[in-house]
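hey can u check if this looks right to u? its 474 residues, i copy pasted from the old doc so theres a chance i mangled smth
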Amino acid sequence: MALTLSKIEEIAPDQSSLAAARKLLKDQAWPLLACDEVGLVWGECQGSGSAPYRVILSEADLGYKCTCPSRKFPCKHTLALMWLRADHRPFRKEERPGWVNDWLARRRGSSGKGPAASPVAQPAHGDETKPTASIALIEADEERDAGTEARAAAQRDRVRAQRESAILGGLEQLDRWIGDQIERGLAGFQNIAHEQCRLLARRLTDAKANGLAGRIERLPSDLFGVPEPVRAAFLIERLGELHLLAEAYRRQSELPEPLRADVRLAVGWTMTREALMADPQALRIKDRWMVLATGSEVQPDKLRRLETWLARMGEGETARFAVLMDFAPVSSGVASAAYSPGEVFAAELIFYPSAAPLRAAIVEQIGGAAPGDRWVAPPHDVAKALDDYEAHLAARPWLGDWPVAVHNATVARLHDQLVLSHDGAGPALPIKMTEDDMALPLVGIAGIDAFGLWDGRRLDLKFAETPQGRWLAA
């Protein structure tokens, strides 16, 4: 049975379903479009969830199946698949996957006579119970909406320009603030750090530079978290990073696109999931991933940021890490990450554009998450981990915390602190100490595979596999 637009109009349940299907005709909505030699067509349509909806169509009799929960038949995904076929869009010819064969077997039943099933029911002649659906009406509505969309686009451009102007004004305030601190003398900054940073963070939030506001808000706690002898150098370094970010934002048109994306993200702009999924240059990796750490932090904009740190499984010389970020209003109550350290799941990740890609989103998860076996770190010693950090720091100078892994390491005491080293030799990573010194049970144990976040001075140890078992930070 040849698919035509008029046939699709006949079987559409109503005009709204047809209009919704029209919106799904974009190529980026369909990561998979395929067919075989006997008239079976299938595809995967990206919906709002992490896993796409699977749609199957038999062109012989217009039988269909979609995994979406819609109560309309056919649903918008099925109508869109039919529409793509009627428009002669390219479909790959390939072998049927298991989920298509399963559907086909259920249709055949026990007779084994092939995909014969009742065709899609059509309304009898003169049946007025089914509303008329028309593609021509959709096109007319789109023409009428063109003017409205143009006005909305112009308004979005105005809002965007206003925000750009507000951010530039915020950067001028940041410049003056840095100058004031230097003129006043950095030696006394510790006494006024909380007050000064809270005031500037509020101004930067008002200027829509939420990313910079967060960095300023965290500065006092970061400053008092390092040993007193190095606080002056630490403060100069952080102020230098802020100045560099401000200058980079002003000159972002001169930067390579990945670094420009980093600058805008650091200042406070965001990228929607839809835009990320539609980016043909975005890095995608499909593999098994282990959860190594989770974290939660309240931002100045009153959103709680939830982080999930992942490591790519499998043996290899190169470590690949990713961090998933979710955001929830603080007013909504306590929120937690969707995964727990030690769990493993298979998924395709897509990475946000960056000169040092790290933040990612899940395109599709295959199956659920389950407790994993021992994690084996890549064969890195401390020197290799530091080289890796320096390379990423050169690519993105305001790198912040960066994931590092060390294989076959040892935790040892060095004076009044703990350090992570490779077999107790060579360079060592100072470990960030906590009030309860949770890392103390690791002292003296050889053969540790360790993961943590390195800020250039201290390692925030998060996860370790030891001969005695798994250790997790609180």
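Residues 152-267 form one domain.
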